[in-house]
Write a structure and sequence with these properties.
The structure holds 2 protein chains of 2 kinds. Chain A contains 11 helices and no strands. By secondary structure, chain A is mostly helical. The relative contact order of chain A is 0.14. Chain B has helices at 2-29, 33-38, 45-55, 61-73, 87-122, 127-141, 144-158, 174-200, 203-210, 215-253, 258-267, 271-299. Classes of the chains: A mainly alpha, B mainly alpha. At the A-B interface, helix 5, helix 6, helix 9, helix 10 and helix 11 of A face helix 1, helix 6, helix 7, helix 10 and helix 11 of B.
Amino acid sequence: MSEAAIQKNDRPAKIKSKKNKVLIFFIKLIRNPSALIGSLLVLTAIGCALFAPFIAPYNPEKINLIERLAPPSWVDPNSPYLLGGDPIGRDLLSRIIYGARVSLLVGISGVVLSSIFGVILGLIAGFFRGWLDELIMRIADIQLAFPFILFAIVVMSILGSGIWKIIIILGLTYWVGFARIVRGQTMSLKETEYIQAAYVVGSNNFKIIMKHVLPNVFSSILVLSTLYIAEFILLEAALTFLGLGSDPTIPSWGGMLADSRNYLSTAWWTATFPGIAIMLTVMGFNLLGDWLRDELDPNIQI
Amino acid sequence: MLLYVLKRLLHSIYVILAISLIVFIALRLTGDPVAVMFGAGEPTKSAIEHLRASLGLDKPLIMQYLIFLKGIFTLNLGTSFRTGQPVSGMIFSRMGATVVLAFAGVIVALIIAIPVGIISAVKRGTAWDFLGRIFSLLGLSFPNFWLGIMLIMFFAVYLDWLPASGYDGPVSIILPSLTLGLILAGVLARLVRSSMLEVLNKQYITVAKSKGTSEWLVVLRHGFRNALIPVVTFLGIQFGSLLGGTVIIEQVFAWPGVGQLIINAISERDYPVVQGGVIILALLMVFVNLLVDLSYQFIDPRIKVEGRKA
């Protein structure tokens, strides 16, 4: 990280090297097989979520009782649906494509919210120390001792299902991971010579945090964010499966698996394909996150 | 040492207080618990007043919280809205099933993860390592409840070897514990691998090898024993999410544990059971965390507890 400090004197050089860095980063990404597979899986999921109306062959809400539990069209040529129909005759494939929206919305918004809370609290704790640090870390310890699923069960059973409620609960619980990492790094950064030097030339705390601390903790935040998206997608699916997650009227992977439970012996496709969708998306984020960790921050403790 | 135990106990009490506060606040967020209890019916005013007084809801909030707190420590968690039975009794009659399932899951995970992790580390960079890492990745990426559904479809529906759900004698535990264990084994194998790699680079391993001890003996006796500490730590930290996983898996397999009780109570709007169940599970977790923290020194006497940050 001291590189950045040296290059500061020479602005054009810095910009050029930044561009090169991004380019090198992408070349490395493409050359690493697991990172490449990971990003393709993630891009596919994002593409499904963004362009669902254009990709989906049918309306995901369209009920067609004649085709209820229709097998995949490659099993039964009379079936109109590539991946089969659900218990009330909706197209499974279209619902899976639309379902990407819920999963990614929860995963990404959950990470945005938890990282905002976590980074701010971690910076405060690590930079200013003192009783605020004590308080924040004590709260973090207590939260770590209370598993998310139990917390979510209590809150969601009372508030009722809803995507935004899950996102808020994720934000209120998972900030701890970000806060701990940011706090630790901020504490050690504060002791470095260039931050001491910045004080000497008269920078104030805010400026130092924005210019010197934040850019240096960014890579850890990125790694943790990617891995947390994977975890949040799994949690949302599990909660929705229990009937405590996203709104049951919106197509979601967890909800589709819940619908499939009474048809395991008659319609294997209803339980199989939504699960594959979850697994592949989560695997994509995990592969990408693992690669980012090896690349950016091999010593990170998560 | 005694000081450390006291500190840890104090921490556990903090956690229990915080959890009780969260649950208490959540209960008040429902609005009037009495209105919830009467549901759609239209009770008379005197009936409402009577119930309110009998539940202690006419007292000030602080008093209500203290009574609630006393209930937790005396394990008097109120009565079920639906059955009228005491909640603690309902929970304890199902606790055994949950603990047995969680325990079986950990055993399955250890049986799978330790060999996979060790082989991955010792044969680093080979096809074995590659397979081991794929196994870990799958464990991290599989939704646990979906793995359960797939196992039911294969072993119970297609092959018809094992019961799909419910409790039907000891064979019933095979599929749910396999589900829990396989998911946990993914993360665990990765951890065993990385901590083995770290240990295998240590000098005493080289020394033991140069003495002519056979390679696997070195790996197992000198390597694995020292790689075990992160594994135990991890299991302690993960006990909470293991219980969370158990709650979900119980629902998939209709396993008669606390998790299933809680989830069923939610759909019946039986709040005392939901809250009592969550509190008991949280207490169990705090207790296990405490136990794990205190057990470090027995695994590795070199650990100085005072130096550890809790």
